[in-house]
What we know:
Number of helices of chain B: 10
Shape of chain A: globular
Strand content of chain A: 25-35%
Helix content of chain B: over 70%
Mean pLDDT of chain A: 92
Structural class of chain A: alpha/beta
Number of domains of chain B: 2
Oligomer: heterodimer
Low-confidence stretches of chain B: none
Shape of chain B: rod-shaped
Bound molecules: adenosine-5'-triphosphate, magnesium ion
Strand content of chain B: 5-15%
CATH topology of the largest domain in chain A: Rossmann fold
Distance between the termini of chain B: 32 Å
Distance between the termini of chain A: 15 Å
Mean pLDDT of chain B: 85
Amino acid sequence: xxxxxxxxxxxxxxxxxxxxxxxxxxxxxxxxxxxxxxxxxxxxxxxxxxxxxxxxxxxxxxxxxxxxxxxxxxxxxxxxxxxxxxxxxxxxxxxxxxxxxxxxxxxxxxxxxxxxxxxxxxxxxxxxxxxxxxxxxxxxxxxxxxxxxxxxxxxxxxxxxxxxxxxxxxxxxxxxxxxxxxxxxxxxxxxxxxxxxxxxxxxxxxxxxxxxxxxxxxxxxx
Amino acid sequence: xxxxxxxxxxxxxxxxxxxxxxxxxxxxxxxxxxxxxxxxxxxxxxxxxxxxxxxxxxxxxxxxxxxxxxxxxxxxxxxxxxxxxxxxxxxxxxxxxxxxxxxxxxxxxxxxxxxxxxxxxxxxxxxxxxxxxxxxxxxxxxxxxxxxxxxxxxxxxxxxxxxxxxxxxxxxxxxxxxxxxxxxxxxxxxxxxxxxxxxxxxxxxxxxxxxxxxxxxxxxxxxxxxxxxxxxxxxxxxxxxxxxxxxxxxxxxxxxxxxxxxxxxxxxxxxxxxxxxxxxxxxxxxxxxxxxxxxxxxxxxxxxxxxx
Lengths: 222, 308
Ligand SMILES: Nc1ncnc2c1ncn2[C@@H]1O[C@H](COP(=O)(O)OP(=O)(O)OP(=O)(O)O)[C@@H](O)[C@H]1O
Ligand SMILES: [Mg+2]
């Protein structure tokens, strides 16, 4: 569950990225975050991931007010979240396997469990054969799937993705979306920021539309 | 939930990762370690110098002798009693009594004035007690207190001891010890700065990795760990190299020093680092490395936050 209550975000340069944004995403929902470039989509996701803090208002995640989380509690909070970004942010000098294992390495998961879960995640994104490859030996679409596998390997309850299909052709983009849809089917809350209106229409999930920092539609579940 | 095995394995992994980083840039690693080792070698050398000088003067003070000239009217019997009470002192090593007659006989024998001395009426020489302090009580203050004690005898005329230069040398060594301490403190700061800087460079080179690790929920402790191991390894390897320098230096200087000692008729032996001192050097180096890394990491890691 993600809930924004009258959230304002002003960046240090004075730019008002979000203004009075309120919405609620229920557990297990699949929601698209849409809007023009610069509208504030990434800002919403950054507030959820605690990469940024709201200037005003509150962000509640799974019933907890993130504003009251002390800095030292942030790592544990992020471990319960799956995050996928457009430029995948993979470690280029580590094989696929190690990249996917990273969220488990930073927790105290045993090596046996890590192996089990990494293999399960590799199967889910169809990269079992490439586990020893370096990211640069993969296609862009495959790299994106590594990023997704890394986001889901720790079995988060919430999965947020920022333009996960930005670099992909339509077929690949649809494959990736279907992957996200499968996570929703097993109960994960999925929030995806995207430009790709064709995909949004095709998948037909609720759409939160932002324009110039203001929420124009989809504030509550229909 | 954390099993001790998982915890231990994570640390082992961080340690191996740090070792791997060092080995992947052998030249840079070697340079840093060489600089650290020099900064550690300098005070260690000074320390060994003072230690050896102390050992050398120790063997020289064994040759110190106190000579007590008794007043001429003291009887031989009383002189024997006094020699016994001198012997009872803790500081006393070998105590010998040379009676006036023995003294005269010796003098006659060695001086060549035999005939002239025949003209003397009676014996003008006093009884003399000669005392050698025990080697472990030959420090200046023990000798001074012994001298005060002997001088307080009403029967003693003069108590002679030639230890002025020992006292001066000891003061000089004390000064050198101070210099060693100041140097050690200054160079410890130097080592901290070198390691802190190496860690800073390493952190900025691995910025992307740190950002991603924090993004997926890596705590500060987790992110810091490999850098602490890196700093500890720098310190340990620097100290080990410093120990090698010291051994090489001692080997190079030893023949020359022994020759010098022989000229002075001293049984001087070069003393190197004991096992404890070697352990102290390695442990101290490692601690400095950890501390330098901790400071570097605290300053630079907190500034790196994931962004998107
Ligand atoms: N760190 C920052 N510092 C200053 N301004 C920022 C920062 N991040 C974003 N902004 C500004 O805030 C506004 C919203 O940015 P945001 O990244 O949320 O938009 P977006 O909807 O994700 O756009 P895009 O589709 O291009 O990714 C933009 O005008 C942007 O310039
Ligand atoms: Mg964006």
